[in-house]
Amino acid sequence: MKILVTGGTGYIGSHTVVALQQQGFEVVIVDNLSNSQADIAYQIEKITGQQPLLEVFDLADREKTADFFKRHSDIKGVIHFAAFKAVGESVEKPVYYYRNNLVSLMNILESMQENNVQNIVFSSSCTVYGQPDELPVSEMAPIKKAESPYGNTKQISEEILQDFIKVSNVHAIALRYFNPIGAHESALIGELPLGVPNNLVPFITQTAIGIREQLKVFGDDYPTPDGTPIRDYIHVVDLAKAHVVAVRRMIENKMKQNLEVFNLGTGKGYSVLEVIKAFEKVSGTKLNYKIVARREGDVTQVWADSSFSNDELGWKAEKGLDEMVASAWKWEQAYRSR
Ligand code: UFG
Questions:
Q1: If I label 140, which of 43, 46, 82, 281 is the partner at 20 to 30 A Cα–Cα?
Q2: CA of 298 to the centre of ligand 1 (A)
Q3: 2-182+232-264 maps to which CATH number?
Q4: Strand pairing partners for 172?
């Protein structure tokens, strides 16, 4: 069974390609390599023994997208990761973000309809909840006004799906990720941020390996037990597996509505200082960090109510924080010694 994974050479995409192949799916990747490298397809082959087909083009190009779907009309499902994801950059370049993230989704949906491809899994984010009024946050929680154009593209994309499923044969599952971290146990694939990392864990591992001098902890005056913000960190391999479950659910006609939304988190929150402590413990290193002012736009705390995805999908995140940071560290070391 053939699955299209857009953004399949990226961080979550590559881990999902591995999970799909290991479950017997044939994978075709479309990626414009704007934030990843073609050699990921070889790294994937080292893990699974199969090299996924990779087509390099931009899904914001309507003609190329239409042509691709004509040639691959036997696709049974699409997992759509391809998008820009840097919050700060989206504030600087809003139109660039809206065009890329929204036009590519619309092109894919139109081509799916034209070729009777019915199933799409969409990468959404817990960012749609903003700072939730109640924790843990469930899928029923209200959507808050987006803090950034990036966050807004996720909200608008969910709305586009909501409207489109009413007038087409397309069914959709939106997966709202909490904070994906870690890497495949083989250390052959992992997160590869371009330039200075925005996210906590790549910044930690790059500091520990000596590429960054010091981690800045953005604020310790939040109303949390140790003063630093709390997030629901989830191992990328657990996250990847949820995509396989979701795509199977669609193919096997087990959906209860034509658009379903699931939180993908562990249900447990950790503060920034707890993540640092876990890293120091598993790596046996002392991290150079200092507390600085808050980062604009950061919420105080958010963690998932994952009961709906656990019950409905029969999926549960299995890996704990130590395993997550240990795998991120193993990946950083393996990558830098290549
Ligand atoms: N942090 C630091 N120093 C850093 C980087 C991060 O202290 O150098 C802190 C942040 O302030 C935050 C925590 O680490 O408290 C996690 O930050 P990340 O940037 O790793 O993750 P975010 O929770 O900010 O971002 C995630 C997703 C985004 C999404 C956003 C919405 O990565 O895609 O949630 O809140 F938009």
A1: 82
A2: 7
A3: 3.40.50.720
A4: 120, 259
Catalytic residues: 150
Cβ–ligand 1 contact at 111 (below 6 Å):
no
Q: Are 172 and 247 in contact (CB under 8 A)?
A: no
Helices 272-283 and 321-336 cross at an angle (nearest 10°) of: 60
CA of 199 to the centre of ligand 1 (A): 5
Global model pTM greater than 0.90: yes
Q: Is the CB of 128 under 6 A from ligand 1?
A: no
Per DSSP, the three-state class of 140 is: coil
Q: Which of 122, 110, 114 is nearest to 164 (CA)?
A: 110
> What is the sign, positive or negative, of the torsion defined by CA atoms of 102, 108, 113, 118?
negative
Which is the closest atom of ligand 1 to the Cα of 203? 8
- Structural contact between residues 330 and 209, judged by C-beta atoms closer than 8 angstroms: no
Ligand 1 centre distance from Cα of residue 231 (Å): 8
| Residue 176 in contact with ligand 1 by CB distance below 6 A | no
pLDDT tens digits for range 65-115? 999 999 999 999 999 999 999 999 999 999 999 999 999 999 999 999 999
Please give the number of the atom of ligand 1 that sits closest to the Cα of 150: 36
Rg (C-alpha) for the chain, rounded Å, is: 19
Sequence spans of domains, the chain: 2-182+232-264
| pLDDT digit string, tens, across residues 128-145 | 999 999 999 999 999 999
Q: Whose CA is nearest to atom 26 of ligand 1?
A: 179
What are the φ and ψ backbone dihedral angles of 141, each rounded to 5 degrees? -65, 150
